[in-house]
Specification:
This protein is an alpha+beta fold and 109 residues long. 31% of the residues lie in helices and 9% in strands.
């Protein structure tokens, strides 16, 4: 825990409930009725964080973790994107404007 800012503990009740310690509430900016997220890592460590209103996509998260792991294991496979590819992509989509927050129309579903 050498890189920890602080360590705090709490106790489970008979109903498996606990109070989030004050320093943790302050660090996460938690208020009453806010949601918290528990992320269990492969090594058994648990990360406690504030749950945002936007929920993460578990499939996307798993894919991004796969990519990150592969980059770490095989950095020799990382290659720069060629200027020709960048130019080709810009030619294909350069003048298209899209708002990713707009809902799909019925015909796009």
């Amino acid at each position: 825990m050498a890189d920890s800012l602080f360590v705090s503990e709490s106790t489970l009740t008979d109903r498996y409930q606990t109070t989030v310690p004050d320093p943790v509430r302050k660090a996460l900016g938690l208020n009453k009725r806010d949601k918290i997220r528990y992320t269990i890592q492969q090594d058994g460590n648990v990360i406690l964080s504030r749950a945002d209103l936007n929920q993460d996509d578990p499939v996307l998260d798993a894919f991004l973790q796969f990519i990150a792991d592969d980059i770490q294991k095989n950095p020799q496979n990382i290659k720069a994107v060629s200027a020709e590819l960048v130019e080709r992509v810009q030619d294909l989509v350069g003048d298209i404007n899209a708002d990713l927050d707009d809902p799909l129309s019925d015909e796009d579903d």
